[in-house]
Design goal:
The complex is a heterodimer. By secondary structure, chain A is mostly helical. Chain A contains 13 helices and two strands, in the order H-E-E-H-H-H-H-H-H-H-H-H-H-H-H. Helices cover 77% and strands 2% of the residues of chain A. Chain A has a two-stranded antiparallel sheet with strand order 1-2. In chain A, helix 3 packs parallel to helix 7. The model of chain A has no long low-confidence stretch (mean pLDDT 86). In chain B, 23% of the residues lie in helices and 35% in strands. In chain B, the strands form four sheets. In chain B, strands 6-7-8-3-9-10 form a six-stranded mixed sheet, with helices on both faces. Chain B has a five-stranded antiparallel sheet with strand order 13-12-11-14-20. In chain B, strands 15-19-16-17-18 form a five-stranded antiparallel sheet, with no helix packed on it. In chain B, helix 2 crosses helix 3. The mean pLDDT of chain B is 91. The chains are: A mainly alpha, B alpha+beta.
Chain lengths: 267, 359
Amino acid sequence: MKPLRLGLQGLILGIAAFFILGPVVNLALWAVAEQWFFPHKLPLVYGFKYWETVFRPTGNAVGSLVTSILIALWTVVACLAVSIPAGYALARRSLPFRALLMLAFLLPQAFPSVAVYINVARIFYSLGLNGTIAGVVLVHTVHALVYSVWITTAAFAAVDRDLESAARDLGAAPLRVFMTVTLPLAAPGVIASAIFVFLESLDEFTGTYFVGVPDVTTLPLLMFNASMQGNYQIASITALILLVPSIAFMLVVERFLKADVLAKVGA
Amino acid sequence: MVLPEMLDVEALSVAYGANRVLHGVSLSVPKGEMIALLGSSGCGKTTLLRAISGFTAVESGIIRLAGRDVTKLPPEKRDTGMVFQSYALWPHMTVAQNIGYGLKLRGKSKSDIAAAVTRLTGMLGLAGLEQRPVTQLSGGQRQRVALGRVLAINPSLLLLDEPLSNLDARIRLKVRHEIKAIQRELGLTAVMVTHDREEAMVMADRIVVMADGRISQIGTPEDVYLRPASAFVARFMGAENHLRMTARRGDGGIAVAAGPANGPAMLADRPGLAMGVVDAFFRAEAATLVDLGHETRNGILLAGRIVQSSYPGGTYRYAVAVGDDQYLIDDIVRRSPGDAVAVHLPDDALYLFPPQAEA
């Protein structure tokens, strides 16, 4: 009984590891493969030749990276500008149709994204937003707003109302209460939502493809172009670059997001 | 000209939606007095406190603070200082930052704030803890920081919402007297909310007993304890034993007819009390147990049997079955369950009221 159970557990773990780690290992191999073709199971020649290509000043990887980060930062600013007041209002005020409002932020995710973005692109085209950083930031913002609003709402809801009441009782006007008590206490959740938004923007592909191309090239677009051209080394190296901020921030988020805030997400 | 009271509440009504929780409450507190709003949960005492502090909107009525009508003012524009039941200390600030918050709001200089914080921490026994985050304090220390934070702004009115309910029973007894001493020393006007009768008796100059959104009685601790104005107040102040009897006026007093358990008796007159069926209430410690056959001219005797005995300290506590009822009686003499005894209720231990619908 016991060996059977152990064996089963090992098998399940192995399958899980294969599906999670398999693609990453493949990616890592491609990143250092200088020659690898069918039917060989492993690369024939290893090396860092393509890394040089990617990071060469004339290559567009560095430029795309800068564009990606710029767009992600602006998206964070735009999202917070909406989600801090919206999250506070949703957490504190008894708004009519509160649940409906929360769901409304989920709408952009609910429809098939290609259909949505084709139409967004059409509208942006008539507004002159196509191919601009602002246009891409706008698309990313709408897409990421659901995380941002839901997480900040949870963060504000987790702040004990008595803490705000105590400040008002001592003479602080509502805005002062917000700046000195509510916001500092909700800050970990707000920062976590900002990180989520940053990562979402960094990884976003579909919207950027329809609204940004060909004038705006982000890392995911670069990766896509490289893959389409059969340039797996460039695509893999770009993907690895994209992995770095994701992993780094995930570790930060894990520290910042406390259980009491997580419990209130979407509530 | 009559000096205005520090707090003056006039015909205050508060409703949450269609549910009215305060029905025209009126109350005055002179400067330097501490009153306790006492009642069981849901009686409206916390709502009254929140209405005074400005956190609960008022349906009708007036609240005046130091002669100024504050009924429509937001909490920050009223000069009140509230100690919250949860203390509501800001976890992202140190002890000094918590206590200095109100002074910083008022634009005091850094050195003034530091001096005030030092003075307050010294007074409250928190010296040396100024730079501690409040999350690292014990319950008693947190409570004192909450008090210090409020005292720093020297409010016209100190509001205390169940200030001791989060403390250990042993510390609570000590802190009661500490808060009372500080309030008296600084001459603060204070309103405290509590459901603990003894806490109210020890801390307050006057007690406001509340029930169902109304004031049942206002008076000194002696008043409400010895001269309860209603059956509810009598029960709430500890006279839980209840005896129904028939009485009529005669011979300069109240003649109690012999009932299923009690013999006939003469009691001193209670002016204004309607005769007929009367409910009597008495405390466990105000009655004594005597042997059957004992005779007295003071009060009532009930024949009963001990069904349970315990020793909570000081005196024995007996459950005595009298007819269908059971009473709790304290007595210093040790007796055993099963003993037939008489319960002696002295005249002044009996609070008589017209029968209540549910009693």
